[in-house]
Hints:
By secondary structure, the chain is of the alpha/beta class. The chain has twelve helices and eight strands. Helix 7 packs across helix 11 and helix 11 packs antiparallel against helix 12. About 35% of the residues are buried.
Amino acid sequence: MSRKITIIGTGLIGGSAALVLREAGFADFVMGVDNNAAHTAQALELGIIDAAVTLDKGVAMADLIIVAIPVDAAVALLPELLNKVTKQVVVDMCSTKGQLLDVVKDHPARGRYVATHPMWGTEYSGPQAAMANAFKEKAVIFCDEKGSDAEALQTVQQMYTVMQMHQVYMDAAAHDVHTAYISHISHITSFALANTVLEKEKEDSAIFELASAGFESTVRLAKSNPAMWVPIFKQNRENVLDVLNEHISQLRKFKSCLEKENYEYLQELIENANKIKRIIK
């Protein structure tokens, strides 16, 4: 079946989705909508999209519309988007779900919308960061799928099957709690660590000369785009605060061990942390 797809947001996530779906034969014509004209020009040059179009044209011509923009922009856009659709399917790829689903819960076209979150990304942004091998063997979360029309849900399920993603289902509240723990806190920690080292580097320029692969892997998320992450932290504020409080409590335990020279307890803390091997191989 030939499909025309409109990608709203031609950066890392939207651009990668376009590349994967075109290569798999799921899409035969890809249109791009982006407020950043430089992004659409670059997406055209890189062969990510076939045409740069207006929102109205992109909606009118598409069978499937993929929303891959920062979550604050998506909350503002989604009701307007659903006002324009008839038979088209709308799917978002945003990192928080509570507010998105809340703003359209009573919309007459709610059934045309499928709320998802593919659990993949990198610290880079823009069309140049798009990857043709993205998403494979990662998880995608479907939220409140019972509110979507059966045919719309099936289309999106087929899309993620083509993308070779493992499909998980949960409600929006559970999603936002879980992502606070497995994604959002990792980014805040990386931002904070980068700021710590940058502050210290003012006194000791040798720090970055000595930085190893371990440091790079720990702090790489600090390169992530603030235009994406500030809205995520804002929308998931309560859950992120809960996780931050626990994280700060754990840091205080390590600090106390060193202050009191309690190396036995320090070893217990590290041994307990090693249990993460059960989850991360």
